């Protein structure tokens, strides 16, 4: 359900709402991911100040997050047009507890009807929490009704901004002091040793501390993946699905820039970004290798003390940050990604030395992408044993949903 929040009355809402409308069209009509749609909107409006950018971003996020409830209460077809756009927005205002503007553009918004529909759907989870039928059913089937009843609303809450202090250049306490000097208030998290949570979201990328590589923006549960791998200085570590390298850089910091980390990925542009981030962070032990053939993987057989498999997944654990996933994801894609995860386990696990450790991690809430995958792998490979598991959830922590398993190769 949409949390009540006062809307900034200092902004020119009429012109900004046109940009929100365009952004939603980029998402629901053109099929763009929300982050790319917002990036395009911001790029087209470079003169906006912080409050304009915040209004458009927050409004877009809230609408996408609660899209099904809003459309149901607006009693309009699932299409974005000039005719029904103001009805959709006006319905959102009523749901938020705001007053409707005195304008003929909102004449189709019947406040009493909207409130009546809200009461009608209050106990129908898939509408009240805005999930597609198939996704609501699958989550209930895999998690159980009791757990899903709690998790569904938790994944609809806005995510806090969390930083990871780069231990190669600073400490969490030092970073906290540095940020306080420029007016950024943070709090340390007891369960994530390198994390600082911002009390109020800010554009942290414009500050010298970021430019100097003192921190990265990273969810605290995501930070715990590198910690779980139990790396030590001097080790040879392979990050098999490195992407742009958030966890790679964290591993390098824990290893005190001593040893060797081989970062693998099928997409060269992501590895190029990792190289840039490594330079800023002062990381000197990362070697990027593009997976352009099976030879790249075969050459690494039996070579790694530690292997990280941060596998592709449905992304259902990060709905707080990417609510558009609810509307983009298709049932068949989950089945496809489960197969991909199994293939990655089979292909990359031989990289680990005998006696070495491997972490399988996924930012999904579904057991079919987590615990069940590990059960399947262990049934196929008696040479591996499960050493530990961790589940992170917004129900228990202020974080995204993550599953991680630590496995040891015994022979």
**Hey, roughly how much beta strand do the residues contain?**
15-25%
Structural class: alpha/beta
Q: Spatial order of the strands in the main sheet?
A: 7-6-5-8-9-11-10
> What is the number of beta strands?
11
- Give the termini separation: 51 Å
> Rg, please?
23 Å
Average pLDDT, rounded to a whole number, is: 94
Q: How large is the count of helical segments?
A: 18
Could you give a short description of this structure?
The protein is an alpha/beta fold. It is built from 18 helices and eleven strands.
Question: Please, could you describe this protein's structure?
Answer:
This protein is of the alpha/beta class. The protein has three domains: 13-129, no CATH class; 162-217, 2-Layer Sandwich (Alpha-Beta Plaits); 220-409, Rossmann fold (3-Layer(aba) Sandwich), CATH 3.40.50. Helices cover 45% and strands 16% of the residues. The protein has 18 helices and eleven strands. The protein has helices at 13-28, 34-43, 50-65, 67-74, 82-96, 111-121, 125-128, 133-143, 145-154, 172-181, 208-211, 220-228, 246-254, 268-281, 294-298, 325-328, 331-348, 371-380, and strands at residues 162-165, 186-188, 195-198, 215-217, 236-239, 260-265, 286-290, 304-310, 352-362, 384-392, 402-409. The strands form two sheets. It has a seven-stranded mixed beta sheet, with helices on both faces. Helix 1 (13-28) crosses helix 2 (34-43), helix 4 (67-74) packs across helix 5 and helix 8 (133-143) crosses helix 9. The chain is globular.
């Amino acid at each position: 359900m949409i949390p009540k929040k006062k809307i900034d009355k200092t902004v020119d809402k009429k012109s900004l709402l046109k940009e929100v409308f365009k952004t939603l069209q980029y998402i629901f009509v053109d099929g763009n991911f929300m982050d790319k749609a917002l990036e395009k909107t911001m790029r087209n409006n470079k003169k906006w100040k912080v409050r304009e950018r915040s209004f458009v971003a927050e409004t877009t996020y809230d609408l996408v997050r609660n899209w099904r409830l809003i459309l149901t209460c607006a009693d309009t077809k699932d299409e974005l047009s000039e005719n029904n756009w103001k009805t959709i927005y006006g319905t959102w205002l009523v749901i938020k507890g705001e007053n409707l503007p005195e304008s003929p553009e909102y004449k189709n918004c019947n406040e009493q009807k909207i409130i009546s529909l809200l009461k009608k759907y209050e106990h129908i989870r898939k509408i009240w929490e805005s999930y597609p039928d198939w996704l609501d059913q699958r989550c209930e089937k895999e998690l159980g009704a009791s757990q899903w009843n709690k998790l569904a609303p938790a994944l609809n809450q806005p995510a806090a901004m969390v930083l990871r202090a780069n231990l190669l250049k600073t400490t969490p306490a030092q970073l906290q002091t540095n940020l306080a000097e420029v007016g950024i208030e943070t709090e340390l998290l007891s369960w994530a040793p390198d994390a600082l949570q911002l009390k109020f979201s800010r554009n942290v990328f414009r500050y010298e501390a970021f430019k100097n590589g003192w921190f990265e923006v990273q969810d605290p549960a995501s930070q715990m993946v590198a910690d779980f791998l139990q790396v030590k200085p001097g080790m040879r570590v392979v990050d098999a699905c490195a992407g742009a390298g958030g966890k790679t850089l964290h591993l390098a910091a824990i290893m005190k820039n001593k040893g060797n980390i081989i970062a693998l990925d099928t997409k060269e542009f992501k590895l190029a970004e990792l190289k840039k981030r490594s330079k800023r962070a002062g990381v000197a032990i990362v070697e990027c290798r593009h997976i352009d053939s099976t030879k790249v993987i075969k050459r690494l057989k039996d070579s790694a003390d530690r292997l990280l498999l941060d596998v592709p997944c449905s992304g259902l654990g990060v709905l707080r940050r990417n609510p558009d996933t609810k509307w983009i994801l298709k049932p068949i894609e989950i089945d496809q990604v489960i197969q991909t995860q199994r293939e990655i386990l089979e292909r990359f696990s031989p990289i680990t030395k005998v006696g070495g450790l491997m972490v399988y991690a996924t930012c999904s809430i579904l057991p079919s992408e987590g615990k069940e995958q590990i059960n399947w792998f262990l049934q196929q490979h008696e040479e591996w044993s499960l050493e530990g598991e961790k589940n992170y959830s917004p129900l228990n922590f202020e974080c995204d949903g993550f599953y991680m398993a630590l496995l040891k190769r015994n022979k």
